[in-house]
UniProtKB/TrEMBL annotation:
GO MF annotation terms: 4 iron, 4 sulfur cluster binding; 4-hydroxy-3-methylbut-2-enyl diphosphate reductase activity; metal ion binding
Sequence positions that bind [4Fe-4S] cluster: 20, 104, 202
Originating species: Paludibaculum fermentans
Official protein name in the record: 4-hydroxy-3-methylbut-2-enyl diphosphate reductase
Enzyme class: oxidoreductase
Gene name in the database record: ispH
Family designation: Belongs to the IspH family.
UniProt-annotated binding residues for (2E)-4-hydroxy-3-methylbut-2-enyl diphosphate: 49, 82, 132, 172, 230-232, 274
Function: Catalyzes the conversion of 1-hydroxy-2-methyl-2-(E)-butenyl 4-diphosphate (HMBPP) into a mixture of isopentenyl diphosphate (IPP) and dimethylallyl diphosphate (DMAPP). Acts in the terminal step of the DOXP/MEP pathway for isoprenoid precursor biosynthesis.
Cofactor(s) this protein requires: [4Fe-4S] cluster
Signal peptide positions (record): none
Amino acid sequence: MQNNGSAGKKVILLRPRGFCAGVVRAIDVVKIALDVYGAPIYVRKEIVHNRHVVEELKGLGAIFVDDLHEVPAGNRLIFSAHGVSPAVRSEAKERQLEVIDATCPLVTKVHLEAVKFARQGYGILLIGHKEHEEIEGTYGEAPKNTFIIQTEADAEAVQVPNPDRVCFLTQTTLSLDETRGIIEILRRRFPKVEGPKSQDICYATENRQMAVKAVAPLCQLLLVVGSQNSSNSKRLVEVCGKTGVPAYLIDDKSFLKEEWLQGVNTVSVTAGASAPENLVQDLIQYLMDRGFGTMEEMDIVDEDVRFQLPHELQGGMVKLTTITTSTAAPATI
């Protein structure tokens, strides 16, 4: 990025930002399916929570539906990155749909944990947002055993059949701090409560929140690029807000309000895990055109996470067999 000469005002661009491995995989699943099978390809719900991504894929021939009854019997259907319940899988089978599963592997991990604990007779305290598609899917694995916990008040009030046989699981896109408080309450109320072997909040959510916390003392404003229904993007705004620094979630540069920039000399910019990089670069240029003449990138952690394609797309006709992010982390998942 070029300096336009106005050195008095600065943009700090956070890294890591934007697409995570699960999002890259999900988007590429749709594109590859369209290339291999041709349009139309149906997608249940938004493939990821970003309206720009959805509109791009619509232009390529993807058809997004809320209900499986909108998909003609026998057609090809993609499950979104957020996962689905067993009931949805059964319905797709009944309608003889050719399913390609783009569920993020880290979401699948939580589903498998729910199944395991339910089989062992545990009450499952599922921490997350009740209306989010990820929670709906995980809850559907064991609805008779599962209690959704959205707040610390819920954690204080929940009653389970056997307090000595209880576990907790979490949505992958939550605030680390908020979740920590809920888990502390659950551990106090249920001393024998068990959790997952490794935390359910995904690496990308954690890394982007860490970056926001690190930059907050250095800026007067944080802009988060992401759609309004993106859970992990909303959490970035909340994390920054708790530091006292104003933060706003914007779909793209057109959502930025000029009054937010008044009296501000240092703006930090990041993006949720489903926000395309071109929207970030457009925002940076927009800020530079308004006098923010210096841009520096702050690296917090490297990411190098990759996921294989769903088995439905693995074959000789598909050239791409591994999806990788453009940024680097210490380990491959």
